[in-house]
Design a protein that fits this description.
This protein is α+β, with helices and mostly antiparallel strands. It has nine helices and eleven strands.
């Protein structure tokens, strides 16, 4: 993963080099403990030894490739067979490959322009069909009709996450106004009445009352980021201003001492807080979505997948162990 990052810094390069040292030590240990005559200094394995020095001199790995082409270098083979006179082939292949590269670049530019135009058209159509509420970098779509707090709680009567929803919301809003020096409405603490038509909820599925959500997010927790399960996205209007909020189930419960197997295999294990410990947060605290899968042997534990992209990989290095 360190080698595939689109952006490299001295920190990521140093961390990657540290991982390579561990990898080399494990290979040597494995070779010593197995009865085999295998030579581990084959080209593909040797490549890693100078990988990060190559990055320092050439840039990120997406800028180059140690394999010019796959499938027995099909392009070179085709050029040699059909476009050369089998004499002085190095110069001929280089010139013809250059022409192919120019053609591919032009084709890529045209495809990129078409893709950009299609995205603009898609966004325009989507904007007409489904208006979005924008809160700086946050967009809330699929808006439902305003509903009262009482109706919202009654529709989720069997969900313990909503058992103290009104209290959670009142406490969060009061703390938010005080922390960010926002004038309290009418100069008094916020008290939300059951009949107050102040909630604009965002659809979670075609039947949000009956189908459980499986959306997970990474939340800015101040001192330490944490994962959470997204229960509801909504906005509350106070003094003609909308405040976008989210009801979440934190996945920050300790799962005990990390087992050696988890550390060795880099399993990032997290535990769910009880459903009735749900919290209200501002959507501005949401860093990004996350790919979280359940541990089917432990009902309240989950595993975070770090290989979906470089950003999630680095995020997990900060949250969990790195050794």
């Amino acid at each position: 993963m360190y080698l595939s990052l689109d952006l490299q810094t001295e920190d990521t390069i140093s961390a990657g080099e540290h991982e390579l040292l561990q990898y080399s030590a494990l290979i040597q240990s494995y070779a010593a403990e197995t009865d085999t005559t295998k030579n581990w200094n084959f080209p593909k394995n040797h490549t890693y030894k100078h990988a990060f020095s190559d990055i320092r001199s050439k840039g990120v790995t997406r800028n180059y490739n140690t394999k010019p082409n796959e499938k027995i270098h099909r392009l070179f083979k085709t050029i040699y067979k059909f476009r050369t006179n089998f004499k002085d082939i190095k110069k001929q292949i280089t010139e013809i490959e250059h022409n192919f590269l120019i053609a591919d670049t032009i084709r890529g530019d045209l495809a990129l322009q078409d893709s950009y135009n299609n995205r603009l058209h898609h966004k325009a159509q989507k904007a007409l069909e489904e208006p979005l509420d924008q809160f700086e970098r946050i967009y809330l779509g699929a808006k439902e009709n305003p509903t009262s707090l009482r109706d919202l709680q009654e529709s989720h009567a069997n969900d313990s996450a909503f058992s103290t929803f009104r209290t959670l919301l009142s406490t969060f809003m009061n703390n938010l106004f005080v922390e960010y020096n926002i004038p309290l409405p009418n100069g008094s603490r916020i008290t939300l009445k059951p009949e107050q038509k102040s909630i604009i909820s965002s659809k979670s599925s075609m039947s949000p009352m009956k189908i459980e959500r499986f959306d997970h997010i990474l939340v800015n927790g101040g001192e330490k980021n944490f994962f959470a399960k997204l229960i509801l996205l909504f906005a509350i209007k106070l003094d003609n201003k909308d405040y976008p909020l989210a009801l979440i189930q934190p996945l920050d419960r300790s799962t005990g001492v990390q087992r050696h197997k988890n550390k060795d295999l880099r399993f990032y294990r997290i535990g769910a807080q009880p459903r009735n410990k749900a919290e209200v947060i501002s959507v501005h605290f949401i860093i990004r979505g996350a790919y979280v899968v359940p541990d089917f042997e432990r009902e309240t534990e989950f595993l975070v997948v770090d290989t979906i992209d470089g950003d999630m990989f680095l995020q997990l290095q900060d949250i969990f162990y790195t050794d």
